[in-house]
Write a structure and sequence with these properties.
binds iron/sulfur cluster; OB fold (Dihydrolipoamide Acetyltransferase, E2P); six-stranded parallel β-sheet; 21 strands; 470 residues; binds 5'-deoxyadenosine; pyruvate-formate lyase- activating enzyme; alpha/beta
Length: 470
């Protein structure tokens, strides 16, 4: 896979192009035999979840309604992820399963989009091996879905389009998953080329939205009654790169904080770009929640170097210290990979000792998964699956113990919980996130969903907190 750093162009989608898409949406709406219902199946990260909100928004604009499940929909679209092999296999497995559903519902159209389609060779593979897929497009041309779908519905056949451009499309319709909380993308793509990661290849180079566009979107969400905004980007800390206005992430946060939206969160941050100014902006804010997702990936300097992370264990621990001294009790979470090529037992033990030392409130742990075209995939010293499995189990055991120990610090303290839904274990309890980003369960009913409820934490149960209303 080649590195596309130099041969891509960045631009805003022109008003003419956007008008063309609006026109296509109107034409589909007017088609007598268009699909009536849709289902978007999402894999992967928050960026994908938000792309799915845009897909749903566009489909609703075309006059479709959301089906109760994927079996009964006329149009099913899979928004895929390719960061790890298992996400990719799951998506392809489910696409294949739909082939059977189509035998019962010949009207069914099947679409596949997202990161997986941006992988080199994938579009050809879909055409050949998945003949029942009607429509495929990638992340770069998501905004062109109306035109592509119109072509499919009018002309039949199959429509597959992959583009390689670093563009920003403003003002696409969005169907939000939640009324009380919203995602706002502030930057797209990634320039970091961590050696194991496929994201820079499938999401393109970093590009930031204009600050005014972001503020306008946030204002309109605030008018709609949104209580919490999650700012999204692969590396939010480098927001502003390439903008003429000289905007920075801390300044964006300060402007949003001044607007008075109740809760502001963001992800993801790269430790090497976590500036003192960002910590200052957080510490001096009223609405930025005291939580931070800071992926460490490994506790070993040699592995971090092999991963091209561009910080050392000591640098990372220094950032954690700075965060904790400015924002005491900050909720801290991370991502960790075990079994990167060449990782020795001693180096893995350094990851264990880092987890022990930091004491994360939660961690996403992954077994390294080779991605074709990335630098790590070609490295010597690939780790045997049974060794990687053993390492991840030991890592999870340490993390879970540290998490239980660390969460005790919240017992007896007050939190504000934004209720997300009924608890999975009981229908007289609800759960949501407190300000520190930790899941909290309390007694409640459906009418609490979307409300911010003040509570006192009473205990730690599994990996969540229990609480009672104040
Ligand atoms: N194998 C395993 N985990 C990976 N991640 C990214 N690429 C890979 C890979 N090839 C993990 C990293 C990243 C998170 C989103 O996914 O930990 O922070
Ligand atoms: Fe992937 Fe590294 Fe970019 Fe994160 S910062 S998206 S891990 S390349």
């Amino acid at each position: 896979m080649q590195d596309h750093r130099t041969d891509r162009k960045t631009a805003h989608i022109t008003p003419e192009e956007m008008a063309k898409q609006r026109q296509a949406m109107a034409e589909i709406r007017a088609l007598a035999d268009r699909p009536q219902t849709f289902c978007v199946v999402t894999y992967g990260c928050q960026m994908n979840a938000h792309d799915s909100e845009v897909i749903a928004g566009m489909l609703m604009e075309m006059g479709m309604t959301e089906a109760p499940d994927r079996e009964s929909a006329d149009f099913v679209i899979f928004n895929t992820c390719c960061v790890r092999d298992n996400a990719e296999r799951k998506a392809l497995g489910n696409v294949t399963w739909l082939k059977e559903v189509r035998k019962r519902n010949p009207r069914l159209r099947i679409g596949v989009c997202g990161c997986m389609i941006q992988e080199p060779g994938m579009a050809e593979r879909i055409l050949k091996q998945y003949p029942f897929v009607d429509l495929a497009f990638g992340t770069a041309n998501l905004y062109r879905m109306p035109e592509l779908l119109l072509r499919l519905l009018r002309d039949g056949g199959r429509v597959v389009e992959v583009a390689e451009e670093d563009t920003i499309a403003e003002e696409l319709p969005v169907q939000r998953l939640r009324r009380d909380a919203a995602y706002v993308t502030i930057m797209y793509g990634c320039n970091n080329f961590c050696s194991y990661c496929i994201v820079p290849y499938v999401r393109g180079r970093e590009r930031s939205r204009e600050m005014d566009d972001i503020l306008r979107e946030a204002e309109s969400l605030q008018r709609d009654g949104v209580k919490e905004i999650m700012l999204l980007g692969q590396n939010v800390n480098s927001y502003g790169l390439g903008l003429e206005s000289g905007a920075t992430f801390p300044n964006l946060l300060r402007r949003l904080d001044a607007m008075g939206i109740e809760r502001l969160r963001f992800m993801t941050s790269h430790p090497k770009d976590l500036s003192d100014d960002l910590i200052d902006a957080m510490a001096g804010s009223r609405h930025i929640l005291p939580q931070f997702h800071l992926p460490v990936q490994s506790g070993s300097d040699e592995v971090l170097r092999a991963m091209n992370r561009r910080y050392t264990r000591a640098d990372y621990l220094g950032r954690v210290k700075a965060l904790r001294s400015a924002i005491p009790d900050i909720g801290l979470t991370t991502d960790i990979i075990v079994g990167h090529p060449g990782e020795t037992e001693e180096q893995f033990l350094e990851t264990l000792s880092l987890v022990e030392e930091v004491g994360y409130d939660s961690a996403f742990t992954f077994i390294y998964s080779p991605r074709v075209g990335t630098r790590s995939a070609a490295m010597p010293g690939q780790i045997a699956p049974e060794v990687a499995t053993d390492r991840i189990q030991r890592l999870i055991a340490v993390q879970e113990r540290r998490q239980r120990e660390r969460l005790q610090r919240f017992v007896g303290t007050e939190e504000q919980v934004l209720v997300e839904g009924l608890s999975r274990r009981s229908d007289t309890a609800v759960s949501g996130k407190g300000g520190h980003g930790i899941s909290i369960t309390l007694a409640g009913t459906e009418k609490d969903i979307g409300e911010i409820i003040p509570v006192r934490v009473t205990g730690v149960k599994n990996n969540t907190l229990t609480a009672e209303r104040l």
